[in-house]
Amino acid sequence: MNDDPRPGEKSPPTPRKRPSQERGVARYNKLLDAAHALLIENELDEIGLYQTAKKAGVPPASAYHFFPTPGALLLALAERYHEEFSELARKVDTRGVKSWQALLQLRLSAAVQIYNQNPPIQKLFLGSHTTRELVQSEAGFNELLARRMLGFYEQFFHMPHIRDAEHKFLIMLTLVDSVWSLSFSKHRTITAQFEEEALAVAVAYCRTFLPEVIEPREPAAPAEAEPGTAD
Q1: Residue 58: which CATH number?
Q2: Cβ–Cβ under 8 Å, residues 189 and 183
Q3: Does the model's pTM come out above 0.70?
Q4: How many structural domains is the chain composed of?
Q5: Do 97 and 170 lie in a common domain?
Q6: 191 contact partners, CB below 8 Å, separation of at least 6
Q7: How far is CA 179 from CA 20, 175, 193, in A?
Q8: Tens-place pLDDT, residues 194-225
Q9: DSSP one-letter code for 190
Q10: 31 and 86 in one domain?
Q11: Are 131 and 85 found together in one domain?
């Protein structure tokens, strides 16, 4: 049974107490692992603190100590998933990329792969959000992604000056999320058709502020070994 307020009631703040001791960290992570496992078979509004504690093998008092509401638990889980997406961005193989369109396709395809391999992430980010805090968390993460994406493009291309560049990348990401969310609502996954549609939307919008061709930067030369060091 979910412990969230009934529809129409004002959602309370969802502060979380982050553990610092090793034992507390272990319990905190067990609870997040349990919430992830429960989301594989259940919807967001079906996840409660008591059942999460039981699944984790953690005393219910510990669950309420770290997460006073189910919303706080889901918010912490969302932050964990955000870290996974950030790690993904660092691992995308960009060798041979010569155009901003190809780089965008790589980034979006990698994100789709993570979504489709992880139903809990789809439910949390592409489904209907149950709390204002989750909506705000996703919006804040997209702002961070927009800044990082701009930096990523500047790393690979001689980018022109773009007024409000971060804002424009944020709009692009929001549009993509909308298409993916529509796919999830209809098919419970991001289908190949909707993946293509989201890419088309992203490229079309980016063409309103990016030129069709941007000169790529030369790959950085490998550092030379210092004299006297082994190869």
Answers
A1: 1.10.10.60
A2: yes
A3: yes
A4: 2
A5: yes
A6: 183
A7: 39, 7, 10
A8: 999 999 999 999 999 999 999 999 876 554 54
A9: -
A10: no
A11: yes
